């Protein structure tokens, strides 16, 4: 009864890291022209971060940039900025601004809304949309993708029939991570890919726009062993097992999770799912289930 519901959820190619971040207000120190100095305590070190006193330059003035035409995504985050200190990361989708759902807004409309907010800076709710693919790699073998410079880096071409193509990488994907390390420099990214000695290259991608991945899973020998649907079905079964493991003593919570997933399968309201899951799974030991909903 519930397997189809779970399967519908795990096929959504997202990485669920639901968090609602407050970009300030940070304690002010001094005011000079249009800038403030704010103090943060970061891992025991006192650091200073520049903060605008108005939202006129939002989001760039706060250290991050947007892209997309509804929904909108964070494409880059400046190191040492207030956005970086607050936990914003490239690949985050903006769900809310000051409690208002904004997934349908264009980048221009969202920017205008942020600049018109009274609170400086406005509070925003985000969810990570970074998708991870594993590309099999053999020594002296090309993975079959070409990168272009940008902020972030972009996949400009994928060789048909190559490991990257079968893994699900597509032209236009934005490359954010290689082997879980953020990348922003084209030369460094190209060098990392070509010199990687691991059997698998793990890429963190952001795909703007609706499209279906048709990835395949490779066996250790390099041959295609499973189709996407088979791999996703295994993920659904694994999620069901983990659900029993974590919530075995809480049948009421399991029913609530199933009901929420069923509702999502019917309505496809991502914002509601992202908001309600942490409300149901309140204990820290239960939070790992959220990351298993793909």
From TrEMBL:
Signal peptide: none annotated. PROSITE patterns: PDZ. It holds the Pfam family PDZ_6. Residues 48-106, 132-186 form the PDZ domain. Gene3D superfamilies: 1.20.1160.20, 2.30.42.10. This is PDZ domain-containing protein. InterPro entries: Formin_Homology (IPR051425), PDZ (IPR001478), PDZ_6 (IPR041489), PDZ_sf (IPR036034).
């Amino acid at each position: 009864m519930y397997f189809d519901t779970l399967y519908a959820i795990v096929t959504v190619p997202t990485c669920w890291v639901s968090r609602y971040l407050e970009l300030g207000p940070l304690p002010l120190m001094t005011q000079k022209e249009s800038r403030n100095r704010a103090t943060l305590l970061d891992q025991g070190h006192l650091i200073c971060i520049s903060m605008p006193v108005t939202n006129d330059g939002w989001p760039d003035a706060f250290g991050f940039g947007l892209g997309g035409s509804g929904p909108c995504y964070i494409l880059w985050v400046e190191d040492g900025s207030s956005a970086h200190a607050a936990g914003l990361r490239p690949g985050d989708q903006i769900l809310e601004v000051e409690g208002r759902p904004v997934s349908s807004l264009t980048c221009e409309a969202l920017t205008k809304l942020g600049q018109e907010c009274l609170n400086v800076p406005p509070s925003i709710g985000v969810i990570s949309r970074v998708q991870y693919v594993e590309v099999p790699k053999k020594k002296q073998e090309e993975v079959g993708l070409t990168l272009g410079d940008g902020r972030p880096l972009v996949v400009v071409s994928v060789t048909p029939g190559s490991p990257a193509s079968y893994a699900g990488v597509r032209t236009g994907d934005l490359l954010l991570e290689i082997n879980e390390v953020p990348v922003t420099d084209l030369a460094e990214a190209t060098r990392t890919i070509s010199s990687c000695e691991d059997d698998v290259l793990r890429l963190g991608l952001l795909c703007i726009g609706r499209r279906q991945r048709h990835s395949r899973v490779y066996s250790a020998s390099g041959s295609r062993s499973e189709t996407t649907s088979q791999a996703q079905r295994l993920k659904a079964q694994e999620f069901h097992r983990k659900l029993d493991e974590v919530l075995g003593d809480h049948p009421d919570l399991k029913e609530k999770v199933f009901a929420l997933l069923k509702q999502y399968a019917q309505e496809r309201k991502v914002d509601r799912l992202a908001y309600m899951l942490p409300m149901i799974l309140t204990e820290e030991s239960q939070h790992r289930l959220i990351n298993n909903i793909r």
